[in-house]
């Protein structure tokens, strides 16, 4: 019993103290009249009844180290990262490059950004910056690659352009098949690379093709970057009809601008102005107004005029003033590794489709739904 412990020889003063404290705790726990009877300790004991807060504080004092400051730690509840970041929301902080999170989009962006705006020298996409980043490689200087987890492996793609085409193709094929095995033994990237669909997930996360993201962005572009009289020459891989559909759809989802006296007498929905179409196209291809004196990665309520636009994913900046004699390609202006440079992704959005096509035909819906004849399928575990 406890008395045996109390009577046992003790090694040091600390042990004696500990034993006395334990005695206190047990005394409180059992409201111990029998404990106190044979106790000669003159220190008065608070043993009147069970006192839970008192007991807990005694126990806490027992286990706490005297040298540690008794600072209360607050554990914040974990907030879930939102699935998408619309144009009005700042981008989240990126994890460090060394983080081995092969299935997460934001760590992929951390690795891609090491390639900078210059990227790798023009190389086939099988060994381009995106393919390398998916396999855990980051830039280590011009055309040099190193393991993101610093397993020691390093290689390069320099000098490929000097090879004869037949030889070069063979080298590229070999490099592409060894993107995983080039990591040293024991490196996690050697076991599991990122899935090929991760750049698409990254694009959908940071550039959602919804009207609540594209409409504020197109309006900010129209007001901040296209307010001057001269319009840049531009082209995009999206068709003219798709851009027009998008401009009309975005107009419907925005509060109307002050009425234009010229169009007041017209009937029916008027066609988008050239400026409206360019604002919609710039928004679709992920371009944001960029103010060098106050750089942000999202749309501000009151942004200042600027004729620079920038991509918040690849950080390429484009001065619109330089496209009065040449043509701005809204897709090719992105850095080679930017997920907004790939082709055809904008057709995921119903906003570029003709309006009637966006509404689900009830007949088509009927064909898509299959309702079983006798209600729910019979299951052993299901109660009828
Ligand atoms: Zn490695
Ligand atoms: Zn970009």
From TrEMBL:
The keyword Ubl conjugation does not apply. Residues 252-275 are annotated as: Disordered. Residues 104-218 form the C3HC-type domain. It is found in: Nucleus. Pfam families: NuBaID_C, zf-C3HC. InterPro entries: NuBaID_C, NuBaID_N. Keywords: Metal-binding, Nucleus, Zinc, Zinc-finger. Residues 263-275 have a biased composition (Basic and acidic residues). One of its GO terms (cellular component) is nucleus. One of its GO terms (molecular function) is zinc ion binding. Residues 279-346 form the NuBaID C-terminal domain. PANTHER family: NUCLEAR-INTERACTING PARTNER OF ALK, ZINC FINGER C3HC-TYPE PROTEIN 1. This is Uncharacterized protein. It comes from Cutaneotrichosporon spelunceum.
């Amino acid at each position: 019993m406890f008395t045996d412990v109390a009577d046992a020889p003790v090694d040091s003063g600390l042990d004696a103290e500990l034993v006395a404290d334990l005695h206190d705790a047990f005394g409180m726990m059992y409201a111990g009249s029998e404990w106190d009877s044979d106790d000669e300790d003159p220190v008065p004991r608070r043993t009147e009844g069970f006192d839970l807060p008192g007991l807990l504080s005694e126990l806490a004092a027992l286990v706490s180290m005297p040298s540690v400051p008794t600072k209360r730690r607050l554990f914040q509840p974990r907030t879930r990262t939102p699935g998408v970041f619309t144009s009005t929301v700042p981008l989240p902080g990126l994890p460090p490059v060394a983080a081995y999170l092969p299935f997460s989009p934001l760590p992929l962006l951390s690795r891609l950004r090491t390639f900078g705006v210059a990227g790798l020298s023009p190389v086939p996409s099988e060994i381009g910056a995106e393919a390398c980043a998916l396999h855990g490689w980051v830039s280590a200087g011009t055309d040099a690659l190193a393991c993101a987890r610093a397993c020691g492996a390093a290689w390069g793609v320099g000098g490929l352009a000097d090879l004869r085409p037949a030889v070069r193709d063979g080298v590229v094929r070999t490099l592409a098949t060894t993107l995983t095995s080039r990591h040293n033994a024991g490196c996690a990237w050697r076991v599991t690379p990122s899935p090929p669909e991760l750049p698409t997930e990254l694009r959908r996360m940071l550039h959602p093709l919804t009207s609540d993201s594209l409409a504020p962005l197109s309006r900010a572009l129209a007001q901040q970057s296209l307010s001057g009289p001269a319009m840049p020459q531009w082209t995009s891989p999206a068709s003219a009809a798709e851009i027009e559909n998008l401009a009309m759809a975005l107009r419907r989802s925005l509060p109307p601008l002050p009425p234009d006296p010229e169009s007041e007498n017209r009937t029916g929905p008027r066609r988008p102005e050239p400026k409206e179409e360019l604002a919609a196209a710039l928004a679709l291809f992920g371009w944001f107004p960029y103010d060098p004196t106050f750089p942000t990665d999202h749309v501000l309520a009151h942004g200042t005029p600027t004729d620079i636009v920038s991509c918040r994913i690849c950080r390429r900046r484009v001065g619109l003033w330089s496209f009065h004699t040449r043509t701005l390609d809204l897709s090719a202006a992105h850095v080679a590794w930017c997920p907004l440079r790939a082709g055809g992704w904008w057709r995921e959005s119903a906003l570029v489709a003709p309006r009637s096509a966006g509404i689900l035909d009830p007949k088509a819906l009927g064909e898509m739904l299959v309702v079983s004849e006798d209600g729910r399928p019979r299951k052993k575990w299901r109660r009828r």
